[in-house]
Design brief:
The chain is of the alpha+beta class. The chain has two domains: 72 residues, tricorn interacting facor f3 domain (Immunoglobulin-like, Sandwich); 123 residues, Zincin-like (2-Layer Sandwich), CATH 3.30.2010.30. 22% of the residues lie in helices and 25% in strands. Strands 6-7-8-10-9 form a five-stranded mixed sheet. Strands 1-5-3 form a three-stranded antiparallel sheet, with no helix packed on it.
């Protein structure tokens, strides 16, 4: 009942700050990094995604395998599953959403590739390969979450006029400040968010002007 289409169940995790331990055994602190692989099986008609290399479409078996070969802290591990479809935005950007919502989300987030290109010009090569955003159901209780390769976003950014896309710039900026260079402990979390807010504004200025 808490999804847009109200037809299928929908699962998502939120690991930041110390909640990864609630869904997998791990050393749950930002100073510990690890690689991982996973196999996830979901009911028929559903797609599973993680903060890793992701499928673009559903398969017949409902079983999906994931590899994250770049070390990440536990708070950047993420899993979601539901009736999800994908639409490409640019050469290494795209959006996932419930099917009835996908075109609206893709239109709203059409500047994602430009944001990524401008961010690379400012801060160097994007280290994570693919940058996708999944627009989650209204039950997602946060604005966004910078999971590597798969940003989680609230549906409230789909305003119909592209006026709220600064959230995407912010989560993209975390690909450098936070995901690539991480505070050693949560006492220094302000470093993560402080630099990211600055980076976000630089990206927005580069894309849209002052």
């Amino acid at each position: 009942e808490q999804t847009r289409d109200k037809q299928h169940p929908f699962l998502f995790t939120q690991s930041q700050a110390i909640l990864a331990r609630t869904w997998l055994p791990c050393q749950d602190g930002p100073g510990v990094r690890f690689t991982y692989n996973a196999t996830v099986t979901v009911p028929e008609g559903m797609l599973a995604l993680m903060s890793a290399a992701n499928p673009k479409e559903k398969n017949a078996t409902g079983t999906y395998s994931f590899v994250m070969d770049q070390p990440v802290p536990s708070y950047l591990m993420a899993l979601t599953a539901g009736d999800i479809a994908f639409k490409e935005i640019g050469r290494n950007t795209g959006v996932y959403a419930e099917p009835s919502y996908l075109d609206s989300c893709a239109w709203e987030l059409a500047d994602m590739q430009d944001m990524l290109d401008k961010a690379e010009a400012l801060y160097g090569t994007y280290a994570w390969g693919q940058y996708d955003v999944i627009v989650l159901p209204p039950s997602f209780p946060f604005g966004g979450m910078e999971n590597p390769r798969l940003t989680f976003a609230t549906p409230t950014i789909i305003a119909g006029d592209r006026s709220l896309t600064a959230l995407v710039a912010h989560e993209l900026a975390h690909s450098w400040s936070g995901n690539l260079v991480t505070n050693a402990n949560w006492n220094d979390f302000w470093l993560n968010e402080g630099f990211t807010v600055y980076f976000e504004n630089r990206i927005m200025e580069a894309v849209y002007g002052k």
